[in-house]
Predict the structure.
Amino acid sequence: MGIKKMLIISKSQRRTAKIILLLTATLIMSIVASGARQRENTEWDISYCYNVNDNKLPRVLLIGDSICNGYQEFTRDELTGTAYVSFYATSKCVTDRSYLKMLSYILDEYDYSIIHFNNGLHSLDTDRAEWETGLRAALKLLKEKGKSAKIIWASSTPLNSPALTEKAKELNAIADKVMKENKIPVNDLFALMDPMNRAVYWTDTFHYNNDAKKLQAKKVAGAIHNMLDAKKTNAASDIRPDTVSVPANVVNNPGFEDAGGWSLHPPDPSKVSFESAGENPHSGKMAAKITVKAGGGEFYQQNPALPKGSICMVKYWARAEKPAKMKAYVRTRKPPYNLYGENTAELGTDWKEYSVEIKAPDDYQADKHVLFFTFSSPGIYWLDDVSITKKE
């Protein structure tokens, strides 16, 4: 009798345990669906679909917030003749109770070849664990309902506030981890904009003027162009590119026709300065003009997207006001510094093309490296048509 009673209690305990597990799972699903984040006082959604009755070209979907809404029209112009554009911009965080519902509706509208995806600036104060859960849920939905669409993650842009920029970095770090796990390339809009002059290109804490929007659009369109090319050749990539590009040029703003993409060290105009100048460029309307006034100087671009284990060629055109030496190489951002393909060019006063071969290690990570041009002596230097391509 005692044994029978014990068995009955044991079965009852197991039933209770199952009920608790079921309730716990339901609670977790509820948190993912609704999110604990409090909504903003005004929430908004904007969606545009261009060329809705055309089907000759692939269609791409841009997902984001007001930053996406800012660059979407310029991106459409950049992709004219290449792809049709739809976009969905919203103030909703991925943890919002209706975010996945809205996203599901947008995904049902068309078959997309590329989905360029971001969610972040309206999530700066969202609990980080909840945001990661929401991001993973959104990514799962994109994969399921996006059918064969290739996904590109866009990092959140920096702000005209150091404290808020640090929060954006936190979200980007979480997203980097999630995207790496899912082998999804990252279009690093943060790295594009962070070196820019906030007094010039920001219109408020969050937003940008048209020059900056056009620069972002070129970056977004470049990533999409290269992903479409990769789809045509069935070339898969699991690296973190700034623009998804094998073997296309991975350098941002290579001809210096636009602002952005490049930085100086030291960041002191009394020692070294840079401008896009129309003084006898090698091609186009502009070239980089670097003026070294005292000591040496470094002109650089972060995150050169070299394919892991590949051999790449860095090519560039350069000249100087008088014969001088300039070095070009890729280097790790932090010590111990590893240099790849260091080369010293003997510059003359006329344009000349130079090149350096770089062997990327098998564990190469773009966001840990920088493309450098360094100048050892004072003078004026011009640089144009910089490219990094995979060696065939």
